[in-house]
Write a structure and sequence with these properties.
By secondary structure, the chain is an alpha/beta fold. The chain is built from four helices and four strands; from the N terminus they run αβαββαβα.
Amino acid sequence: MIEPRSENPFQIMASAIDKAFDHEVKFQHVDNSLNADDHIFDAIVDIIADNEDLSGSELEVLVKNNDVVLTGIVPRRMMIYLIEDLVEGIPGIKNFEHYLKVKEEMD
């Protein structure tokens, strides 16, 4: 049996992404066991962190039973299309939904 870490690695990662890319990413992870959800979640975190075009985004990622839901605010509409393309390319995702809003349209 794998013992859970005392520090939440997703919060540590979110903090590092905030500092490095000047945007806020909140992560919700349903289960601590290493499974397909973890791999999908890690892949999403990686593409968000590695893509400079997503700077300024405030995203929340939820993965459960290979289903992905993204919520949050992006600075420009083209970022929604970029996120859709990147996430849909990740193997193992059964369903992908997003509830992303463009900051400019909210002002």
